[in-house]
Design goal:
- The structure holds 2 protein chains of 2 kinds.
- Chain A is built from 13 helices and 2 strands, in the order H-H-H-H-H-E-E-H-H-H-H-H-H-H-H.
- In chain A, strands 1-2 form a two-stranded antiparallel ribbon.
- In chain A, a hairpin with a 2-residue loop joins strand 1 and strand 2.
- In chain A, helix 10 runs parallel beside helix 12.
- The relative contact order of chain A is 0.18.
- By secondary structure, chain B is mostly helical.
- Chain B has a two-stranded antiparallel sheet with strand order 1-2.
- In chain B, a hairpin with a 2-residue loop joins strand 1 and strand 2.
- In chain B, helix 2 runs antiparallel to helix 3, helix 2 runs parallel beside helix 4 and helix 9 packs across helix 10.
- Chain B is globular.
- The chains are: A mainly alpha, B mainly alpha.
- Chains A and B meet through helix 4, helix 10 and helix 12 of A and helix 4, helix 9 and helix 11 of B.
């Protein structure tokens, strides 16, 4: 039982990185990307190949995974980001399918549908993680969640983040203000892809194996659901959304109902979440109100005075 | 193998295969393009409407077919099943629009798109629960032995596809171009506000658009199912390809969708032959075509360049 909960916490952590990075792309910049699973998969496969084939250590494999993911982000972003949202959705969906097709068909690199097994566990500062000791991975994954959360939060308050926000609110107005919208969109896309690659890397070393069918379209939808449910453009809300969706997905297994409930129930639930949230509460559970620590402190000081 | 050492017969063979494939893409693409014309969003659930309509056609045909062994009557039953399935999917399209898209008509552009993705996932998984994930066979309502004609083999199935595609497209073109309702459809897609000032019931026109698009998609679905069986995810890939066809032709343009479908069908058939790539990567061609078209002419072959007003 405790092991199961730890597993859940690890998965929530990995998915949080994914949803945080998608939030930068979709929630913050307003680009509907449906290929986040592909970036995740590219990261996971890069780590798997580098650590089993090239015997690279975990840190460099992780860094390379992130960089390769973000290069693919630029590659897909360059032709499509000049376009309106709907085209981007389809093009990214197509890109995701191409990546999965390649993972299945490129036997010499990815070993096809079998996937890559026996990925070594990471060695951190001379301390080798043991897969059965799940709490070690909890610390590793959540360390990354916290770091990425703060990096993205800093980006949000920077000049760059405000430019992204402007693009989301009104692209033409942003253009008129002298923002190079295409450039900013591509940078936002590649940063999101970079962090998705990092998440893929963590997933590969924790799961110790990767196979192409993990990274399908439904995973992209699931990540999108987390962002929409929590609240687009609000990093803390997105983590709340991730916790809800991952827990809801595992609840039948947790309560021992997995034989009674058909496996499709989860996906029907995701669909319902998307439709109902769009109709009744498009801003998400927590909405777009941003958490601003500076303002909170100022307000509390004012109250005291 | 390159294009240059193919005999004339083979060339004609690929041409026929490509045109039948393209005809099916075109039928589905019409639904996307018409909906995009009036509502300016991609109906992601289009492929799933196709799938459910095909299931409906399958069930009706299977229950009718046991009543007779006469091949002509069986074929008549097939046509009846197809018509019932088309009516069913038209209703489905109207209901989906009423529930999931109508409340979002004034919302930002991302909202109806996400809602459509949600509807698509619900329908796909619901049918997996109801009908099972195993694919079901849709029997040919006729003897499908290939006819040899000057060294080219054509199956009766391909002939059926061509006839159905031509009839439906001509009917649609006549409806849109020469009838009063068709004129109202065009007016609605041009400008909803002005159209409603001219006494056109915009809500009704949007419902009609969904009904026509869904019925055409269902027809295409049944034609596909004869060869590739019926299963819950059958609509996804077909829908995606058809969407690409609509973009290639110029989204929002009905003639463009027909043209785009045919072009995509031909490119896919010849692409596999010319490039010599494995069948597993066949879908990659369509997506590459999409990206190339988006780069060169995002408005599509027949699309107009619309200047954005602030």
């Amino acid at each position: 039982m405790i092991n199961f909960i730890l597993l859940l916490v690890i998965y929530i952590g990995i998915y949080s990185i994914l949803s945080l990075s998608l939030n930068l792309i979709a929630g913050y910049t307003g680009l509907l990307s449906l290929c986040h699973a592909a970036f995740f998969g590219i990261g996971a496969y890069t780590t798997a190949i580098l650590m089993t084939g090239a015997k690279l250590d975990f840190w460099s494999a992780m860094l390379i995974s992130g960089v390769i993911s973000s290069l693919f982000g630029i590659l897909i972003g360059l032709p499509t980001l000049r376009l309106k949202g709907d085209y981007l959705a389809i093009a990214t969906l197509g890109f995701g399918e191409i990546v999965r097709n390649l993972m299945i068909n490129w036997d010499s690199l990815t070993r096809g549908p079998m996937g890559i097994n026996n990925i070594p566990s990471p060695n951190i500062l001379g301390f080798k993680l043991i897969p059965s000791q799940k709490w070690q991975y909890v610390i590793l994954v959540w360390l990354f969640v916290i770091i990425i959360f703060f990096i993205l939060n800093r980006i949000m308050h920077s000049r760059f983040g405000r430019a992204l926000s402007a693009i989301n609110d009104d692209e033409i107005a942003a253009l008129a203000m002298g923002i190079n919208t295409t450039k900013y969109k591509i940078i936002s896309f590649s940063i999101g892809a970079f962090f998705a690659g990092i998440a893929g890397s963590l997933f590969a070393v924790f799961n110790q194996s990767v196979s192409p069918n993990t990274f399908d379209f439904m995973l992209s939808i699931m990540i999108l659901c987390m962002v929409v449910l929590g609240g687009m453009g609000n990093y803390l809300a997105v983590i709340v959304g991730t916790v809800i969706i991952v827990t809801a997905g595992e609840l039948p297994r947790l309560l021992g109902f997995s034989n009674v409930i058909p496996p499709q129930t989860n996906q029907i639930l995701f669909g319902l979440i998307l439709v109902l949230m769009m109709i009744y509460r498009p801003q998400g559970i927590l909405g777009r109100k941003r958490l601003d620590f500076g303002k909170i402190i100022q307000n509390s000081i004012k109250k005291e005075v | 193998m390159s294009l240059f050492n193919i005999s004339i017969q083979e060339l004609a063979q690929h041409l026929i295969n490509g045109l039948t494939l393209g005809g099916i893409y075109a039928l589905i693409a019409l639904g996307y393009t018409m909906v995009y014309g009036v509502l300016k969003f991609i109906n992601f659930a289009h492929g799933e409407i196709l799938m459910l309509g095909t299931y409906c056609g399958l069930f009706v045909f299977n229950s009718l077919k046991t009543n007779s062994s006469n091949p002509i009557i069986i074929f008549a039953f097939f046509i009846v099943a197809m018509l019932i399935a088309m009516i069913f999917s038209a209703m489905l399209g109207i209901i989906i629009e009423k529930i999931a898209y109508r409340p979002l008509r004034k919302a930002p552009r991302l909202a109806p798109l996400l809602s459509a993705i949600g509807v698509s996932i619900i329908l796909m998984n619901l049918s997996a629960v109801l009908f099972g994930t195993k694919s079901k066979k849709f029997d040919y309502p006729f003897d499908n032995t290939a006819l040899n004609f000057l060294g080219i083999s054509i199956t009766p199935h391909q002939i059926l596809i061509m006839i159905v595609c031509i009839i439906l497209m001509v009917l649609l073109k006549v409806f849109v171009d020469f009838t009063k309702l068709g004129k109202a459809t065009r007016a609605t897609s041009e400008n909803q506000k002005v159209a409603s000032l001219m006494g056109i019931n915009v809500d009704f026109m949007i419902s009609l658009t969904f009904a026509i698009g869904s019925a055409l998609a269902c027809c295409a679905g049944i034609l596909i199912a004869l060869e590739y069986k019926v299963y819950p995810t059958m609509g996804t890939m077909a829908g995606l390809k058809a969407f690409i066809a609509a973009v290639v032709g110029g989204i929002g343009n009905i003639t463009g969708a027909m043209l785009g479908g045919l072009i995509l069908g031909l490119l896919e058939t010849f692409g596999v032959v010319i490039l010599g790539i494995p069948q597993g990567l066949k879908d990659t061609i369509a997506f590459s075509v999409l990206i190339i078209i988006l780069l060169i002419k995002p408005s599509g072959i027949l699309g107009k360049n619309v200047r954005e007003k602030v």
